[in-house]
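I'm stuck. Protein, please.
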Amino acid sequence: MRYYSPTTQLALLSVVLLLTTALRRLLDNFLLRELPTDLNPTYDSYWPTSLIACLSGFLALFLVNLIGVRSILVFYSITSILLFASVVAKYTTGSMAFYKATAIIDSIGYDFGRVATLVVVLAYPGERWKARALAIFLIMEYFSMTIGDLITLRGQASDDTRYKMSVVALSLSCLAPFVSLAIAPINKIVRSNGVYLIARETTLREEITGTIAIFKNKYMLLLLPYMFSYPFLFSAANVPFPTILAIVLYDVGKIFIVLMSLTLDVQWASRKTRGLVSLAMLVVVCIISSAITIAIRTKQVDKSKIDSTWSTQQIYQYIMNASVTNNRALLLTTYFFAGVASSFVELYGFWVIGTLTNDIKASARFVGTFQSVMSIGGMVGYQLVRGIPHQFTTSNIPTYISFGMTVLSFIPMYFVVRRITDTNDWTLASISNNGPTSGSAEGSSETITVIADVKYQHLDDN
């Protein structure tokens, strides 16, 4: 296996994610001796934390092009080390102050690393492997969450055991920066057909100008409702997680993205046709998820038993307790389909971005915006519901409105998918094809930041 091959680089990236994201998802709740709460785990109810996540995604789209993927992953590795060190400090000093500070820093590092990872995963695999490569990296995260929830459920360990495990986790995470440094610069990567991924210098001014310009692009504008709507729907419906089993089912549902990845990758039709069929699958799953959610909120709650003096959280807790008592199977089905729908939305959106362009510079902007707008949708939906009057808390008005927004968002997405071709020619009008097809990219004077040589992209099916 060549060191500069995409496969080797994706393997190194996998190791970095195992030592950072996966390790944290696996042990976070257990090490802190906290069972998952009944709050939505996707979007923090404390809005400043969610706002940081939104801004981090936008900042990451600049950094991917300015400083490169390797530097971002080194930074993320360091924030992960600090986070695990803060857990060790918690058991050593008894204070959570260090943890609270490093958790925010690690949240920023995570968003940076996630944008960089998704950009690479969209760029390195051949066209027949894009969806499956995305699914593997997303499942790595989802599966770690599921196992971590099971460990939390079964873990009855003492503080001494948790302290020792946190030391082990800290030791393992210390390897991540060294693996990150082993990741090659993008301009060294050579696909199996001899095509280079070309890295060229850029400036902050160029990035700001380019980012502003891309928001004038009709495809970005058509994608924005899709990015925003489903996270907003899930949060506006305010689906809390009352039991560990509910969270596990939600996580397991997310793993079903492998079905969509196969539909998108297997060469039974053109990419446009596969995209349209998968969009139909997504619409069906989202409608089922939303319908079951509305059914839970409509049929399982006796509003006459709700005290007007209750807080919003008490009302939500009553709704969930009533749902568990009256129809446990329907409630758990809600979480499973919510997991399936949310992962389908994420995978499909990133796949569409990857099929529209091979320009990693544009891809970074799309991915960073996608990550941030999803966070904004969840944050706005959750905060909107928390702020409405109590008499509307148990109504389905927010859910109906957000459900309508989600359905409507699939319409502009349909027009984006119709633009998909089998050659990724979306940026051909703005990319010169005078770059090298093999050998070094050092001699070029072009100012495009990072592109795949699209002149030969149709040959790259490995």
User: Anything to note?
Assistant: Residues 6-430 form a domain with the Growth Hormone; Chain: A; fold (CATH 1.20.1250.20).
